[in-house]
Amino acid sequence: MSDVPGAPADLLRSLTRAERLLSRRMAAVLADDELTTEAWRVLCLLADGQGHPMSEVSAEASLPPGTLTKLVDQLVDRNLVFRRIDVLDRRRIRAYLTTRGRREHARIDERVRASLAEAGVPADTALVDHLADLIARLDPAGRRDNEAAFRG
């Protein structure tokens, strides 16, 4: 890309390549359970047990609202997720993992971690922390790309 080590083009290329390779590895692990990477993102977000508004799930999973609704419908049909009206704001719907969803998340999470360890991906949080710092620096207002797209 560039003759200068550390050039911005090298960073972009490296991040893009790493994301694509990681996505492929994750997809292979998740395929055994007939889950997509997007579905896995939703399950991971909901695994904290707090329940999340659908708008937040949409932003965190990087999915437009309509696509998220279809995906959550599929997860509901598989008894992995359920939705409830928010008790504080009855206009909002919150999503939660079912008991089965929590068990499946824990089981699949072990397989994902094993696959990453097999690939030599560090188990510590240093890389995640560095990426989170990069995201915060590039997007100090904390906006999500898809949220801006929805507002047009």
TrEMBL record:
<dbReference type="InterPro" id="IPR036388">
    <property type="entry name" value="WH-like_DNA-bd_sf"/>
</dbReference>
<dbReference type="GO" id="GO:0003700">
    <property type="term" value="F:DNA-binding transcription factor activity"/>
</dbReference>
<dbReference type="GO" id="GO:0006950">
    <property type="term" value="P:response to stress"/>
</dbReference>
<protein>
    <submittedName>
        <fullName>DNA-binding transcriptional regulator, MarR family</fullName>
    </submittedName>
</protein>
<dbReference type="InterPro" id="IPR039422">
    <property type="entry name" value="MarR/SlyA-like"/>
</dbReference>
<keyword id="KW-0804">Transcription</keyword>
<dbReference type="InterPro" id="IPR036390">
    <property type="entry name" value="WH_DNA-bd_sf"/>
</dbReference>
<dbReference type="GO" id="GO:0003677">
    <property type="term" value="F:DNA binding"/>
</dbReference>
<dbReference type="Pfam" id="PF12802">
    <property type="entry name" value="MarR_2"/>
</dbReference>
<keyword id="KW-0238">DNA-binding</keyword>
<feature type="domain" description="HTH marR-type">
    <location>
        <begin position="8"/>
        <end position="140"/>
    </location>
</feature>
<keyword id="KW-0805">Transcription regulation</keyword>
<dbReference type="InterPro" id="IPR000835">
    <property type="entry name" value="HTH_MarR-typ"/>
</dbReference>
